[in-house]
Amino acid sequence: MSSTTTPGAGEAPSFEKMSVCVHCGLCLEACPTYRELRVEMDSPRGRIYLMKGLLQNKIAPTPTVLKHLDQCLDCRACETACPSGVEYGVILESTRTVLQPQRPMSPWGRLVRWFVFSLLLPSRAAQRIVLKLLWLQQALGLAAIGAWLGRHKLLPGRLSAAATQAPQIARRSFRAANAGKKSADGRTLTFPARGTRRHRVALFTGCLADQLFAEVNEATVVVLTENGCEVDVLTDERCCGALHLHNGARDAARDLARDNIRLFNAGGYDAVVSNAAGCSAELRHYGALLDGDPAAQAFGGKLRDISEYLCEIGWTPPTGAGVPVKVAYDEPCHLLHAQKISAPPKTILQGVPGVTLVPLEDADTCCGSAGVYSLLQPALASAIGNKKIAAIGRSGADIVATGNPGCLMQIRNGVKAAGLAVRVMHPVELLADAYRRAGGTS
Ligand code: SF4
Ligand code: SF4
Fold first, then answer.
1. What is the average pLDDT score of the chain?
2. In this structure, which residue's CA is closest to atom 3 in ligand 1?
3. pTM above 0.85, yes or no
């Protein structure tokens, strides 16, 4: 991986950043893949050794080396555990960007990569078509047949894993359901505050999540408007670019970031609110992605996770007795490790009438979802996910709350496969339900 001759080499992680690692090994037991495999090269320390060797041309990007790097979840638990402040996520993502052009790839692999990163994620129109087709095959019962075939490993390659993980698809996206809220100039869907307007915010709805998690976006609007926020949803919002960045497509991630920064900064909002940890971790760090660009820094400075924002503005908890329910909170990696947000979601949950928070073992450990990891590394993702599901079973919770679409999908699939009578919800859904019960927004 020469830093002067390799395509994309300008993105190479710096030797200085890697040299911050003093090989103490204190991160090892925090790493889900090390805990699973007990292989040094599948630990943060081992992977930093490999990435440093690649940068110095002392190690070649052999299939074995790439396998160890590909098996990393990019969960960043190692960053939280590291006393030396190693920026593992930055190092890994830079390495993946530099390695991407060197990877041998079949024509089919190239086609899939082009379809996902260049067509599907950047285009809301393409998403609409694909999700409509998926909804149709769900309505015709084909998704259930596919899931059965997948569970019995009767589909080729990774299709079995993909079929078993297929999410439930709502008939209408959040945006389609709220088309009547469109402003006169067509640039926003606008939801007025209940009572006096105290804040004006933009909600980042996500691209695929707009349809796959329409109910979470609806709930987010409810809790924001209940707390004096006028909420705008931008019709031209682009994908956040997180999946691009995690998979070595940094230039495409930058293009998406520039569009989002221009669109959202023009609105002059008090805050840009996200309910998806994977998106917010990326959006918050646009400044670093664009080398300190002031507009990107300004955008990142306004970015808030929904629970963080509610706590910041002094939210008003719902009234009423509520329904008694035991809730376990699972910490999304990109909220806890990438944004260091842990207390606000729990504060929100504790404010929901009827909720009793119960402890969840290893709540700070990845569930195995990690973007498209569960599709690309199904065996390891499943082994890591099974530990999460077993811990959920032992918690005695009625509901698991977690604030990221990937985690919601992975845990929902896991509890269903394990036959657990546990609901899996975003914290804002519990809060929105409580406001609705208390006679607020319907
Ligand atoms: S990444 Fe941090 S915790 Fe892990 S070995 Fe290096 S210095 Fe130690
Ligand atoms: S990002 Fe997660 S999986 Fe990767 S080395 Fe760090 S702790 Fe392990």
1. 91
2. 82
3. yes
